[in-house]
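User: Predict the structure for this protein chain, please.
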Amino acid sequence: MKLNQKNILLVFFFLPTVYSFSQNGFTTNNNELEELYERYSIIYAQKDLFTNLRPYNRADLAAIVYNEYEKDSNFKDNNLIPYLNNEFYDKCIFIKNTLNAKKKLHGFFYPNDAAFAAVYDNNFTLRLNPVLEMKAGKETDNDNMVYHAFRGAEIMGTIGGSIHFYTQITENQMRPFQYINQYGNGFNGQNNYNFNPYYTYWKDIHSFQGYDFSNALGYIEYNPNRHFSLMLGHDRNHYGYGYRSLFLGDNGAPYFQIKANAYIWKFHYHMMLAEFTGQYVRGADRLLPKKYGAFHLLSFKPSSKLELGLYEGIIFNRPNGFELNYLNPMIFYHSIEHALGSADNVFMGFQAKYNLNEHTQFYTQLLLDDLQVGQFTKGTGWWGNKYGIQLGSRFVNIFKMPNLDGQLEFNMVRPYTYSHYSGGTSDTLDNFTHYNQPLAHPYGANFLELYGKLSYKPIPKLKLEAKYNFNRRGYDANGRLYGNNIFANTNEPTIPQEFNNELLQGERMNQHMVLVSGQYSLFHNVFWDVDFFYRNTIVDRTATSNNSIGFITGLRVNLRKRDYMF
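Assistant: Here is the predicted structure, written as C-alpha cells:
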C-alpha cells in the first residue's frame, strides 16, 4: 500500500500522539539556544532533561532557567534572562529583568526585540521575522570573491497551546570557498553525484563555482499533553550528543519527516519516518528517485547525570511506496527485514553520556552496520564488519572561568560502512544518503577524525571560537572500492578483497583544518561574523600538499551559522 498525502494527513490528525516538553516548538533555526541548552544540561543536570536529539525543545531550555531562577534570584547567567524573555515572547516566564516585557507587548511591529511583527492572544500567537545573511571574503589561489547572499523570512507560532508551527523560506546565492566546491563535486571526485552541501536542488552560477538555490524548512507539531507529541515537517535531525553523529546527522539536506515522541517516567521514546531522495546524476528536470527511512531511539535516564540510548534505523526503497511493516513502533527492524525476505539496509547502535560534575561531560556512540562476531574475534579483516565509534567530552567554565567552554571528540568509521549492495550493476538506493549527501558523518566511511573546540564569551554580546579538525581518509582510487565512497554498490565482486581490509586502506589523505571566528551581537539575533580558516591536505601516494587560507565576514540575521568543516 502506498502512503499518499490524504493518508498522511489522516495519520497526523487521528492517530494517538506522543509528547515533547515543547510549548514554543523547536530550536530549528537557532544555534544560540542550542548552545545554551547543551551548557545547561551539564551545569544544571536534571533527571527529566534529554539531550539525545536535535533540534531541541525550546521550552525545555526555558524550564531549566526558570527552575534555577526560582531557586536563586542571583542566577549565574542573569545577563541572559532578557534574551530568553524575548525568545519566549508569549510566556514572559520571569518576573524580574524582563525589559518591561508586559509594557512592550502591545503593538504589531516590534512588540519585543525578538519579533519584527507579532500577534499575541490567549489562544493564538504569531511571530514574523526577516532572515538575512550577507557576507563576503577572499581566499588564497582564488582571484574571485567568495560570498553568501541569503534572504528570506520565518514565521512561528502557537494555536490553542497544543499546536506549534514554524516555517522558513530563503532565496540564496553563494560562491563558497574552493574546498566546499570540491567536496560537493562528487564526494571529492569519487563519483558523479554532485551536490550543494547542506541543501537540495540548485543551479550553477559563476561557471560552476557557485550555487543559486532556495531553501524551505517547516513543521507543525501537535502536543495535547505533557507526555506525547507528533510532528510533521521538513527539516534535519541530529541523533546523539556530539559535534558529529554516527547515527543521523544534521550536516546534509533537509527531508520530509513524521516524528513521534513519548516521555514516560525515566524514558524518552522517539520514532521517525522519513522520505529521502536517492542519488542521481544531474541533467534535465525529472522526478528524482525516492527511498525511505524508519528510525527508533529509546533513551533511559536512571539519574540526572547518566543517559543511555538504543538506536535502530533502516533505509529501503519500494516501487509502490512506503513499506507499511516498518510503521510498527515497537519491533526490531531486523526481524521484519528477515520476515519480508528483503535486503534492506539496517543499522543498530548504542549511545551514552555521563556528567562527571557541573563542568565535565563524557559521551559516546557505537554504530553497528554489519558485524559477524566470529570474523571480528578472529581479526580476519572481513570487509562486511562495518561499524563506527565516537568518544567525546564537553567542558564548561574551564578552570572555573565563566563562559570558557571546550569540546574534544574522536570519530572512527570502518570501510564500507553506510554503503549497501544490490544485484544490479548500478549503485544501490539503499545506502545511507539523501540528495547525494551522507546522512550521518560528512566524511562517509573509512576515516578517523579528531575534533576540538574552544569557545569564550568575554562579554555577553561577543563570542570568540577556535576549532581544530584533523582527519585521515582512505579514498577509493584507480577504479577500486576501498570503502570511503558510501554510494558505491558493494555487491561482493566489486570489493577488491574479501579479507584483510583495514581502516584507511586505499589512497590516504591527511587533513588539518583550523577555523577561528568571532561573533558580535548587534541586536537580538542580529550578528556580525568574522571567520578565518587554514586548511592543509596531503595525499600520501602523490606526496602532494595543498594549503588554503581564507576569511569571510558579514551580517547574519535570524539565521543559523554553519561552519563547513569538511
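The radius of gyration is 23 Å.
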